[in-house]
Amino acid sequence: MDNQTSESTSIWNINLRFLYSGFIMALGYGYWLLSSKEWYAFGILAVMCGIAGVAYFIQTIFLLRSRIRNDSKVKQYTKQGERPKGDKPPGREDLDKKDMLRKGMSK
């Protein structure tokens, strides 16, 4: 259950990052529409928001790529199965059958 909650949190995180980068780019587009010669500051804000939105979008793509790689590694390890287990230690009966006990110790 813990893995599933972290996976859903990861999905929400990535989706919100994409939404946020889209919002920043849309804000930059809005500033671009408001810019003119008198309002040149809106043009500067538009360029800054555009660069920031694209950079955040690219950063989110790389984050998504690393999470997909990590999930594939985890799936690869889970396919391998459990570690091999050794035999159980021999009991008194097993040792007695093989005549490995000293003569005074057997009952």
Q: How is this structure best described in words?
A:
With 107 residues, this protein is mainly alpha-helical. The protein has a domain at 2-75. The chain contains 3 helices and no strands. It has helices at 2-34, 40-80, 92-97. α1 packs antiparallel against α2. The longest helix is centred in the middle third of the chain and has 41 residues, at 40-80. The mean pLDDT is 87.
Explain the layout of strands and helices.
Elements: H1 2-34, H2 40-80, H3 92-97
Helix pairs in contact: 1-2
Shape assignment = rod-shaped
Q: Alpha-carbon distance between the termini?
A: 51 Å
Radius of gyration of CA atoms, rounded to a whole number: 32 Å
Order of secondary-structure elements: HHH
Structural class determined from secondary elements: mainly alpha
Number of strands: 0
Low-confidence stretches: none
Helix segment tally: 3
- Work out the helicity level: over 70%
What's the pLDDT, averaged over the residues? 87
Report the major sheet: none
Give the structure's gist in a few sentences.
The chain has a domain at 2-75. The chain has 107 residues and is mainly alpha-helical. Helix content is 75%, strand content 0%.
